[in-house]
Amino acid sequence: MAFKEWAVVVDALGRGEQILVLRKGGIAEGRGGFQPEHERFWLFPTAFHQQRESIIPEARTRFDSAVAPVMAEGTVPIQYFVQLETAHEVTSLEAALSLSGQHIWTEEVVRSRFDWGGSQRIFALLFYVFALPKPVAAADAPRVRRLQVVDRTGRGT
User: What is the pTM of this model?
Assistant: First the structure.
């Protein structure tokens, strides 16, 4: 099982610069918003919707290096495995903004995610992050149903 997240956020989680993810939900997650279905999963870095202006200035220096591997040759580097410690529904904008320093998003992004869809809430997901010594390549496809690791010869495993 894999969890798609901005590559720069995956990088920050792996480096210990971010300890939680603020998740609103998306098209595939239904009217109830984001509901974690699994407690353990791989982080699948993506550049989809990722924007340099959406992260705090201190994290922007890593933006290009975090994005570059994701864009190369139809593969994505998978290096981090996470265990969900807690998923907390945050129903106050003030509480959501008080999580600054625990993530790399700007205040504007937090406000936007909190207000998105008309519901005044967001989910704070606190993770334990574990790293492989070296990343492995996974095939990148528009709709990945099964995480396929690709060896250096290009053969799937």
Answer: 0.78
Domain range list for the chain: 2-150
**Which residue do the tokens 């792996």 mark?**
14
Report the pLDDT value the prediction gives residue 32, as an integer from 0 to 100. 57
On whether the CB atoms of residues 144 and 153 are closer than 8 A, the answer is no
Longest dimension (CA), the chain: 50
Alpha-carbon separation of residue 27 from 30, 33, 34, 58, 108 (angstroms): 6, 9, 10, 30, 21
pLDDT digits (tens, 9 = 90+) for 55-86: 889 888 887 777 666 656 778 889 999 999 99
List CB contacts of 108: < 8 A, sequence separation 6 or more.
54
- Cβ atoms of residues 129 and 85 within 8 Å: no
Return the pLDDT at 27: 42
pLDDT, residue 30, reads: 56
Angstrom distance (rounded) from CA 14 to CA 78: 11
For the domain made up of 2-150, give the CATH fold: 2.30.130
- Transcribe 95-148 into DSSP letters: HHHTTTTSS-B-HHHHHHHHHGGG---EEEEEEEEEEEEEEEEEE--TT-SS--
Mapped onto helix, strand or coil, the DSSP state of residue 150 is: strand
